[in-house]
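ESCALATION

Customer reports they have been waiting on this structure for their group meeting. Please prioritize. Original submission:
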Amino acid sequence: MIWPRGGQWQRLTLDLVCPEAWRQLQLPAPVAQARLVLRWWADQVELRVNGQAVHAGDLFDTACRWVVPQRWWQGEELRLELRLRSPLHDDGALIESRLELEPLDPADPANLLAETKGELAAVRAGQPLAGGFHVLGHAHLDLAWLWPVADTWQAAERTFASALDLIERFEELHFGHSTPALYAWLAQNRPALFARLQQAVAAGRFEPINGPWVESDCVLISGASLLRQFQLGQQFSAATFPGLEHPLAWLPDSFGFAAGLPAVAHSTGVRWFCTHKLFWNATNPFPHRLFRWRSRCGAELLALMTAPIGTDGDPLAMERYRLAWRGATGVDEALWLPGVGDHGGGPTAEMLEQLRLWQQQPQAAPQRHGSLRAYLAQLEPLASGLPVWRDELYLELHRGCATSRPDQKRHNRTLERLLREADLAQALAGSAACPDAEQPVDWRPLLFQQFHDILPGTSIPEVFEQAEPQWRAARRSACRQRDRALHAWLGGGSGWWVAQLQPLAARARTLRVPLGAWSEGGVGLPAQVARAGGQWLQLPPLEGVAALALERHPAPAAGASPVPVEAPVWVEGWRCGNGLVSFELGPRGLEQLWDHTGASQLAAPLAWRRFGDRGEFWDAWDIAADYRDHPLAWEWQGEPSWLEQGPLCTSFLWRGRCGASAVRLEGRLLANSPWLELILHVDWRQRHELLRLEIPLAQPAQRWAADTSGGVLERPAEAVTARDQARWEVPAISWLASVAAGGAGLAVLLDGPQGVSASPEQLGVSLLRAPTWPDPGADNGHQRLRLALLPCPGGWCRGQVPQQAVAFREPLWLRPAVAQGRPGRRQALPPLGEGLVLLGCRRSGDDGTVVISVQNCSPCRRRLELGSAWQGLQRLDGLDQPLAPDQIPSGDPSLLAPWSLGFWRMRSAGA
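Update from on-call: job pushed to the front of the queue and completed.
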């Protein structure tokens, strides 16, 4: 029975009378009981009997097997009332309603289970009964979704208490649950309950199946964040549950998994990856249920596609799953995970009673209750014969998550940067000089907000409203720790300090500073008054992680002349350039872009596109597959105009409208910058629309590349296979690049993550969406989107696009000196070299040592060479444990294999 969406109530009543023939089952002694079996799709459900509430449910607790009381058998009529409310986003439904007889004696002398036994035989279609089930109770608990985080803590408490009570009642039950963040909250806020839980863990009945700190998004966060997710999760698990190994990454519900995840997880001791989400593929079924997942660097995880989460003890559903599992893997025993999920809950007594009943029926596959670790241990000997998957685990669904709620992505990337900078600053300052030395940088607020329904923007508005002060407080804390530590490292000065906090190659960079006469070592620096306030200033080159002392005076000294501008910006009519990149404006906006050799980059002007985007069930999650069939007008007002012109900065402005939304596009070229920056301001007021930038390529792409969590994706530009055709929208973290026949290409630097696309003819970036469920006002309001176009004559790898993306996203640090002292330069880390990206540098203790994490984002072997200023002490794994000699590539501690991660304990020569 179906009724309309929108929170509409449906009230059903029934006068239930026991059939006369059934009463014979109670004579001379009862041999049966009756259960009212209900299944629904409704966000609020209540079952009342004779006016008394006997069961409640919702969108997640979607079934009941209520035992009809004994008085009904004796002739008492029961007045049943069922009230159901349809979801706001979908029609409501009562899916199943029946009265079912169950034997009190498992031997079933009255043959009450004959019909179901016959259906089991039919499902097996004559196959002999072989194999069985490994049963583990489970409760998937989203940290936020259609409820705020505060409700999650209550749900966790109820779930864990219920599981522990059932463990005492049902001696066969084993229960497993993930998420170190939940265990940490429980230990701090519910110590008595947590003590019960630890006793059950010690008894082997309650199993922490942890991995990352939360069940995080795995395609929108940086490699550094993904690494910290696993590091903190593994470290907490080992300290809190020391009697267990923790080789698991339990991620049943995240929206796809980056190709770099196996390398990151493997570095922290993880051997197994478990998910169910790829069963959700909308186009191509995922071909494996048990396989080896291999990163480009060769690191591998054993991977298990688990049974569905949120299941019960239905023998027919179980048998269908077991047969499918056996047919796909050849393994006789299937894992089964009974328990109410999404909003917690776990197994119920009704489920366990049903499982127990069918465990005693010879027509049903046998069950064995036990831990996930025990089940996986049985599968490990099969590893050598398993298929190998050498790619990301792309979810062919939920392609809009990289674009929805851009405010959450902005918060995430800002806090990622601040935390990494704070770690680095504390490492440079050392424990003696840093006032915050005893307060390590806290990544947990960031890692929590990276949960897979928060960062993607797929929760109710209350979740984001309550996250806002959390984001701000975490940013303030990280910024304060960073600044104090940097001042402690730099010491005194007579003016200002500017610092580059990434080990990048030397380049004279231009930034906006307060008005004044700026100089370095008594030599004036070139400046240009900025239209928006302050002035543009070109700095001397900073090499690697380094700081430079600057002086600022009200007016330049008499007779002083600044140093010449390096690669100044020129303007000739509608053309503009700086010797590294040039462009041309026209009536249609940005009409051409050239690299330093004069090679054209665009086949046509940049295309700013607007489309209708509606009709998807998972509104905030999914871009409509047919959006290109619904183009909408994007109206520009006249031609672009120059906003400011000068040797350090030249910019242009173009205004327009998208429906009711005002649009302001600013383009900016800085002196000595290899990219053209584009900043789009939108007062976004649309609903169910999609804004995109599409870049027509003058040199058709043969391949394209983009960065992803923990690695780099490379694909053919022409999608030939069905799987590549399904990847028409892909999340990218900070860059996307085309690769033409001769190796040249065009890169788009992102202040992302963003959804991107590529074809031989063009690159595309999804800018804004406007879903209305579960957040009616998602994306609306003022939005500032920033990206840049970077020609790559030698290709993305030789052009060091990953490093250029870092320079584009991460501003220089500029502050007045806090104490008087002798100014000068400070050098910490040299440039890491081609292909190498710093993931983190943090203190490893009070002995002056630091741990440096680096990723090789290139197809070539590279060496980490930090010069005589640093002493390498040990090559480590991702948990700071020394590597055995046979684990070091080619026996060379400084060598990094292609695409791989490396960790070192080091000491500064000055420490």
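Sent to customer with the following note: The first strand starts at residue 2 and ends at 3.
Escalation resolved.
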